Amino acid sequence: MAPVMTNPSILKRMDELILEGQLIWQSFNKDKPVIEDPVRFTQWTTSCLNLLDKLSISTNRFVTEFEAWAKRGRGFEINVGASLGVLMAARAEYAQGFAIEYHLSVASAVFGGLLHQAEYLFEKGYIRAATVLGGAALEEALKARALAIPIELSGRETLVPLLHKLKDKTVGVLTEFQATNLEAVAKLRNDAAHGGPFEYTKEQVEGALRAISDTLEQVLGQH
Predict the structure, then answer these.
(1) What pTM value is reported for the model?
(2) Which residue among 92, 129, 150, 223 has the highest number of C-beta atoms inside a 10 angstrom radius?
(3) CATH 1.20.120.330, domain 101-220, yes or no
């Protein structure tokens, strides 16, 4: 089973906002349904929306639902409890890996596009160029995933150091087996990029592109 993609900092912040929302809701329900501290409520809703904007799911439902209840409410009445419910649902979905961070969704589209270009070059017989482009997609995708954990990067990491960081037991994005297979892909990519002899077969390059595709799907979601 692929590891769940979550950022501990986001989960921690969600828990803080859920607690704050519960306190606001309790205060809201005590007497009459009026926001007695609009500054506190506005700060909470703004922070919630800022955090929810960092998640990407189909149609961005968390943001639209939260805004519907917190900013004007259904029937133009603010509903703190429903707003809190949306936030709690977002937290549950994110913890299970069913929502991904927005920039990872963008990365999936960008690097998935690069991979499709590599596959097109491969079909046209340009296997060396396909290898270089596919390797670039893999490297940048792994960097995006590392930054989302977050893992500090110097900006000069190449594929093999990235693989070592992502297979670390404290991270667990890649298994030892996966990292070893991708190191072979990294060598193939380097040999293609450095202009020397390129004696790999079409079947080897096809296998490398398949491994890259599988990795992008795992670390970034469907591309």
Answers:
(1) 0.58
(2) 223
(3) yes
